[in-house]
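Deliverable D2.4 — example input (structure tokens):
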């Protein structure tokens, strides 16, 4: 179940700042294209990479569980610490890739 909690973080990161960006542009009376585009690109790539990798991690754990079940062996789920470390590594990688991508983005 902890995997599912971590699965929603990329969606929150991608969709969370949108209302603030829209409000900022509305109050300013103009659209700030380059900074907003870089930020949106960074958030979009983080959401995409984070979601794909989290889905792969969840699929791997389901595969392990099904293999253990097929062999009639007891399945031991990963500890909370293991889940946090794996998800943290995924988010760190997604953050690095998305920040590097947005720094190299030329609008």
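Example output (designed residues):
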């Amino acid at each position: 179940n902890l995997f599912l909690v971590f699965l929603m973080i990329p969606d929150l990161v991608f969709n969370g700042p949108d209302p603030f960006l829209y409000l900022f542009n509305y109050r300013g009376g103009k659209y700030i294209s380059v900074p907003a585009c870089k930020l949106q690109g960074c958030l979009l790539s983080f959401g995409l990479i984070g979601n794909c990798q989290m889905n792969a991690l969840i699929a791997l754990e389901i595969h392990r569980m099904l293999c253990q079940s097929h062999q009639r062996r007891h399945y031991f789920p990963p500890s909370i610490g293991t889940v946090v470390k794996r998800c943290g590594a995924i988010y760190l990688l997604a953050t690095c890739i998305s920040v590097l991508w947005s720094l190299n983005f030329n609008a």
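The radius of gyration is 18 Å.
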